[in-house]
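Two entries, shown back to back:
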Amino acid sequence: MARITKIEATRTSLKRKIRVAAYARVSTDSDEQLLSLETQKAHYEEYIKSCPDYEFAGLYYDEGISGTKITKRDELQRLLKDCEDGKIDRVITKSISRFARNTTDCLEMVRRLSQLKISIYFEKENIDTDHMSSELMLSILSSIAESESRSISENSKWSVKRRFENGTFIISCPPYGYENKDGKMVVVPEEAEVVKDIFRMSLSGMGCHRIAKVLNDRGFKTKRNGIWHASSVEGILKNEKYTGDVILQKTFTDESFNRHVNYGEEDMYLHKNHHEAIISHEDFDKATEAMRQRKSEKGIVDENEKYLKRYCFSGKLVCGKCGGTFKRRTHYLPSGSYIAWSCATHLDNKEACEMKYVEDEQIKSAFIRMMAKLRAGQDVVLKPFKEGLLGYDKKLQLRRIADIESRLEKCTDQQRVLAGLLSSGYIEPEIYYQEKHDLDVEISGLAKEKDQISGSLKGGLKHLEETGKLMKAVSKEAPVEFDSRLFEAVVENATIISREKICFNLKCGLQLEERLVKA
């Protein structure tokens, strides 16, 4: 009789994991965008890794693009392209309204992916196209999302306009110097003193860049716990709320969901003595005129344009002695001419600052040397720096932010329902305003808590993003000639320490010194 020996299996069958990608839309503000992106990425990574059959295939996101315009959503188009290229097996997104608020577009994309054997899971509606026998439910929900985007907009506009007219509109995010207490703007004494200092410095002749430098040197933080920039200083100097008055509906949204500055297309509402003033109308008008005069001297064409920057070093060079900015000058010699940069304070008063000029070519050569050193030593400088940023444990904070955002979304949904009930006549205005007020207070508290948590995260996230950009830049061939676009991409500003030394303050957070050598 034949003898049979069983040979035990020694290898397990290898089943390829399902490659799952996530799609999201994030806000336009750069810091908020980074935080929102990081929060959603952490959520989807945790969700996908919890399933042993899944493999994270990346997060695709569009920045502040309206859900009604699919053609303008580049990342969504890239997601669809990667699906067609066979890089993705499954897609997860928060809701139908995030994916598309147009029924035709939504169904077209679902059918397009279904033909590729790729399923979509909508978290909010708990719809999985992998288990759908009919498109009816998806079609219905897509239609609801499409009509909801318009009805919500109209109801919100009507509700906000009524509150503009009767004076009950609550400013949920007061500017620096104020906070919300029981739906009213009240002065924050410490911040109010900073606001007064800003106006005093402006009236004394200082520009926004120099004021921002002074505030940062004194250790003051902005409303969101960040550093001061010229734009944030200018925003305070142009904000009429510091006089106690409020102008409402400075911007508006059209029927196509496009946001515009209101130049008279819609009514605006001026509420005088709306709250306690920090600055007098007289000082506010003087500061406005002083800014207008400085802009005229700098080459501003109108109120809505930035300073004319013809040179990449304009506004980027800071004096290490007095903190002032450098101005471009042409020096003439019998043998020819050359470009130099001089401290503005030194030009006005040589006794106020002893810093003398540095040559344009010296700065360019120093930048080229710095980039070459970074390229040669990226393994000992940039990679450890990036690993340090990645090593910061932020999961708990991100999870709390996600919880807050979920609660904020629910509060916003409740506000929309209230607006719909009021416009349909189902509730009395008194009940609506009381409920709306309670929700506004809760939203304000949640937003404040979110700002406190996110303040410590944003700097690190921004530096991490900029470090990635810098590493990509130095991985290329080292520049032999000065590249102004590269300089503007990686350098926040540069401090002229002396005529022999410069410190490049990079956007990623690194500060690197270089010698200034004459050619």
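entry 2 starts here
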Amino acid sequence: MTVLIYDTTLRDGTQGEGVALSIRDKVTIAQLMDEIGISYIEGGWPGSNPRDEQFFEDIKKVKLAQAKVAAFGSTRRSGITCDVDPNIQSLLRAETPVVTIFGKTWRFQAEVALKISGEENLVLIEDSIRYLKDRTPEVIFDAEHFFDGYKDDPEYAIACLRAALRGGADWLTLCETNGGAMTHEVEAAVSHVIRELTSGSHTAPIGIHTHNDCELGVANALVAVRAGANLVQGTVNGVGERCGNANLISIVANLCLKMTPAGQKPPLTLEQLKRLKHLSRTVDETANRAPWTQQPYVGQSAFAHKGGIHVDAIKKDSRTYEHVEPESVGNHRRILVSDLSGRSNVEMKAKELGIDLDPASPDARRVVSRLKQLEADGYEFESAGGSFKLLAMECMGQRPAYFALRALEVTTAFGDGEHGQAEAGTTRARIEIGVGEQVAYTSAVGDGPVHAIDTALRSLIDKFYPELSTVRLVDYKVRVLTSKEGTGSVVRVLIQSSDGDESWGTVGVSPNIIHASWAAMVDALEYKLIKHTVEPYRSSVVPETRPPRSSPRTSSV
């Protein structure tokens, strides 16, 4: 039987700290999950908030290819019937093909949290599922706190599952709600449940839902599959309450590439699997979260190689230091360059950046020598591929000269504020550059020195090189490299730029933060020009570059 994937990013994932999705965000992510091949998409809890109720209205208008949308809720409350229970009725109003309800399977939880007897809890489970199953095509029972309940009283925990089966549940999802179970405990419990609930040729329809409080969410889900579970719940990138849910990205990749038995269909096709990184990145960007760079399979560093010996081996056969092909999950190999690099690193990194560099050539030796010298001075090129390309071209005598700085002056005026504190004032950058035989200058104000310099430079340079009009500074980081000099310490500036299609990093190092920022900024622009094989400006026609002194140019980055 094929293992089915049940995503709960839009419900359980949004309970994570700092995770918030609008209705439009949830619809967009649901459409992408459907395209990739997710079997079930849990959209939210319609009885808990108006946003989730509206999502179920909006998703009805979307034609999904194969994914089933599930509404989530709980068993009915004690003392009232299903036909008047607000939560049960909200599930029916959602009109989804699947309803998932959770119920207590730990006697302790039933008695302490619900303040009912264990016997009444069994009635709630069976009655709620039967009522929903009579009105909904598919009902999934999430056995909340199952593994804690099983450890405390296995007979009662399994009795809860039997009650759900009597009610007509299509799936029994065993929930490791507190995230504290060890892997061997999960595997043993799932195996026991399947033995207990299997009758003749009919295998119990078991699912698994795990959390990551012991960093075992993925491992516990995978051993449950090995023990016989055929439905796996989780969230994209492992978002969720506390330490998060099991990461579906890793689960899906492992199931498809490492755990699918011969003759069985994997959860996703190989083509769908190639969009795994895209799904991961889309969810992070939509939720405004910084991607986890070392995330297995899809992280930026997942297939990044730095040590010279490793890179030399990778060049011969990628299997020497990679467990799968990066492209199988939509990722790609990255070669890092640093003072640990040998000529193999430099050769492969240059090739990645479109530079033909013979590792045995004097050019390669110059690049390695210059690289190590700059690294000793505080440069770091792991996240600055743009600057490395320019460095390599410079050592090979191939770096074009697009413009030159003739003068740069930055001033900031502060005023007196309350309690003796300085009040933020105006920052102005005055800049003069040479482009070919022309000289251009201007001034601009900004929110700070870097903003003002960027605004002034771009108001000049874009006239000579219109190809730069799409380039935007998207990230700016400063790191103090030496503290013994106090405020005179050397700093490293890393800039990430984008033109909408590609992103690239550049670096500058100096005791002067403005000087370091300028170096990284210039590299960012020249990388774009080189990538698009733009010729240096030679025209004798002088673009209009001088602004009226009474009206300096201003803009925002």
